[in-house]
Amino acid sequence: xxTEPAPYVHPAPIPFADPWQYELTIPxxxxxxxxxxxxxxxxxxxxxxxxxxxxxxLLATExxxxxxxxTKGPAxxxxxxxxxxxxxxxxxxxxxxxxxxxxxxxxxxxRGLAILELVADRWGGxxxxxxxxxxxxxxxxxxxxxxxGPPPPALAN
Length: 157
Description:
- The chain has four helices and five strands.
- The protein is an alpha+beta fold.
């Protein structure tokens, strides 16, 4: 006797205020920051957090670009939601922390930390020494706080 397989049932969406996390590993490639930006936009739209999208994309792209430009290995971008705060971390293999720098007015680069300071609600970073479980490097993170409440109930789930 042949039986039909049970239809696939999708799990229920994560409720708006419940925590979640995504991580994207990117290669040392000039296309990676754009791919990360597009991925972040998609994740935030899917979780009804479009209000945070512009600032998240700006800051994460800046950090991912620095990782690709100034290191030789892969990097990772992580989004962590703990209502009402979104934390974005960018890890790369270089343990060298960025140094505050005041570029000349006509410089085309060097404003990353100033942008982070102006746009993020909070930010920081830390060097990670070599560890027996994996590479060291550094992580630079920023947090953005949602100013509006959750979306209407029909969109929350």
